[in-house]
């Protein structure tokens, strides 16, 4: 139960951060990618802030024997670069660049009830189901 409450609180704080920073506005993302036009550096400042917090907090947290609400750390053991990883990264980047949304901000944007975010999240969920079907059919290696 503690894990669910913790996940809910962290998700809520993350969504507040996305909203306050304006990262739920696709125009800011597309503006950041428009380096030869009306460039908007807002995303860069959000990323630098997040990286700075991570650089300080991660080593402090990892000194603990285990997480606060679990008995062990769940850190990925693989660090190899696979074709699936590269293809997924390309698809993610193309979707982010074309739509101006990545999954977190898109889900937070659902609260606005705008057709753009509804279409994006619906397409994202549809893509997840399509991948699951294709993965089961073709046994995609990871």
Your description of this structure?
The chain has 142 residues and is an all-alpha fold. The protein contains six helices and no strands.
Principal-axes shape call: globular
Determine Rg (CA atoms, Å).
18 Å
Mean pLDDT: 89
Helical content, roughly? 55-70%
Low-pLDDT windows of residues: none
Termini separation comes to 32 Å
What is the number of helices?
6
Percentage of residues in strands: under 5%
Decide which structural class fits the backbone: mainly alpha
Counted beta strands: 0
Could you state the order of secondary-structure elements as H and E? Answer: HHHHHH
Largest sheet: none
For this entry, give a set of tags:
single chain; 68% helix; 6 helices; mainly alpha; globular
Element layout with pairings:
Blueprint: H1 2-21, H2 26-33, H3 42-62, H4 83-99, H5 103-109, H6 115-138
Helix pairs in contact: 2-4, 5-6
Task: Write a short abstract of this structure.
With 142 residues, the chain is an all-alpha fold. It contains six helices and no strands.
